[in-house]
Amino acid sequence: MSTGAPLACRRAAVLSDLLQQKFDPDTAEANHRQLYRILQQAILSGELPAGTQLPPTRLLACDLGIARNTVIQVYEQLGIEGYVHTGVGRGTFVADTAPDRIAGFDLITAPARRGNDGGSLSCRGKVLLENAGAGKRQWGGFVPGVPDVTQFPARVWSRIESRLWRRLSPEMMSYASGGGYAPLREVLVDYLRTARGVRCDPRQVLITTGTHHSLHLLTHLLADFGDGVWLEEPGYWGARSLLQIAGLDITAVPVDEQGMNPGELPLRRVPRFIFVSPSHQFPLGSVMSLARRRELLEYAKSTNAWIIEDDYDSEFRYGCRPLPSLQGLDDGGRVIYLGTLSKIMFPGLRLAYMVVPENLVDGFALGLMELYREGHLAPQAVLAEFIREGHFASHIRRMRTIYSERRVTLIEAIHEHFGDALPVIGSAAGLHLVLGLPGDVDDQALSARALAHGIVARPLSLYYCDKRQARRGLVLGYGCVARDEIPREFARLATVIRECL
């Protein structure tokens, strides 16, 4: 016998003693998990250096008072994961896994542009988070843009869902193709033609998981880094964030009572995109005039710019019918229409749609599949039946009445506390209004104080690109606060407002 064999046996015996000290047979942890954890941690920490021979399975099992098969199982798992290697007739040894000895990698020099912290954010990631507008509170008074999900006819939806699941085909449980569930696209065309004046066929309708998703696809397929985009000032922070991190050059275009007004700025560069909400400007609520719409369409047609029409909540217009879409006036194929079901149904459904010009249909349908591997076919099928059976239109009519009553109640509460001292802006439609504040009031500080009292009142200045020109105010949503709670909730907010005036 060689002199190395007794030495290896002595080392194995010492290691066996060490393992006995760490192994606790009375713990609730399973024996194989405990032994695996002890050996793994010892190898990773260097306590068991490369080349160390582990005790024979029979010896270790006897010393620990456990089954030999348990030790064999642990050794095999460690071998599969690369911690140890076994030689027939030679034993089990700790593998050489030290990072500084992995061939082909230089582990000394770190990427200079990210500093010493290898996990630091990218430049665009920092910009996104520094300018983030999303709030943690997504329910209650006065969260803007959120519908009352408690009023949704969940039993009707559940009944349709149960019926469809009983006869769901394998294809419906796989990835989507062609832009989404065909019957849903067909019923949406009928709805959009009647309610919004949109002119399209089912091929032009693509189902997405939200307006952000639609914008993400648009920037990938139609824009290059550095292209220009016009955004409403003030405007939707979510669109600004997405377009900004896509590398687009943003020009903030002022909004007046007729909507976006490009004539206010010396705009020398033709934009790739023009992002507008003409039927109910967000957040100020103005409606784009027919003259301004025609001017914008002619400009896009003559310059090959794309108009992105965000029609986010036009179903809820009070006192008159919803206004026709900008897309319905377009005879040049330059408008891409974005719609969402979040405000009508419930945000957690995560279903929206976009209507693209005919020449973009095939490319967008393929891009949707290639980039996102879309699914959600079962919820799309439920929604198609929900619309086809008339529940969709009925729900819109009912919610329009409920939201109209809440709107009136909130306006009455504002007048009760402040009379005409603070203006109410953009209250003719949607799920929110803007309460104007004097120019010397810090609306962001006021918003923070209100949040500390459990009230969400988003600062109007947050929606401006140029904070120096920002108007002061509070964006107040009344969609998800019950009518009888509005006076009490606003009274609490009014107390905070008076402290800041």
TrEMBL record:
One Pfam family recorded for the sequence: Aminotran_1_2
SUPFAM superfamilies: PLP-dependent transferases (SSF53383), Winged helix' DNA-binding domain (SSF46785)
This protein's record includes keyword Transcription: yes
Taxonomy, superkingdom: Bacteria
Keywords, comma-separated and alphabetical: DNA-binding, Pyridoxal phosphate, Transcription, Transcription regulation
Molecular functions (GO terms): DNA binding; DNA-binding transcription factor activity; pyridoxal phosphate binding
Occurrences of domain HTH gntR-type (ranges): 29-97
Statement: the UniProt record of this protein carries the keyword Cell inner membrane: no
UniProt-listed InterPro entries: Aminotransferase_I/II_large, HTH_trans_reg/aminotransferase, PyrdxlP-dep_Trfase, PyrdxlP-dep_Trfase_major, Tscrpt_reg_HTH_GntR, WH-like_DNA-bd_sf, WH_DNA-bd_sf
PANTHER family with a match to the protein in the record: HTH-TYPE TRANSCRIPTIONAL REGULATORY PROTEIN GABR
Protein family (similarity comment): In the C-terminal section; belongs to the class-I pyridoxal-phosphate-dependent aminotransferase family.
Name by which UniProt lists this protein: GntR family transcriptional regulator
